[in-house]
């Protein structure tokens, strides 16, 4: 499987998980503080019970695999919240590291819980490929350290 196809599969998984996380955030943001998220069968929306496919997000992710995917996404998103430096090279390397770590974490969840041989093989390949790319990015950052202003998130100085 080509690297491009692997990236497309990974991007699709990340987009799906981001959509799930966004839905959960939107649901919790629109709910009054004193109202519980609800339980299956609880009366909602003008007296109509909530269908099981619309349960609150915490009800949907009780299985270990889904919880592990969500934990990985939360960690990746937290680690990617770094201020931009204004230097495209620094920003690329700094943002790709947590992105690649997130891919490895997701692939490891697939290897732990997944059954499909094709996806398990892809997950093994992702772990191997991303490990090499993580090492390459870390090496580049060691050879090209950020300036103090960049490290603090300040804009890079552009030559005049």
Automatic annotation (TrEMBL):
Biased segments, Basic and acidic residues type: 72-84
Domain DUF305, chain residue ranges per copy: 59-141
**Residues in the signal sequence:** 1-26
Superkingdom of origin organism: Bacteria
UniProt-annotated stretches for the region Disordered: 31-88
Name the Gene3D superfamilies on file: 1.20.1260.10
User: Where along the chain is composition biased (Low complexity)?
Assistant: 31-40
Database matches in PANTHER family: SLL0788 PROTEIN
What name goes with this protein?
A: DUF305 domain-containing protein
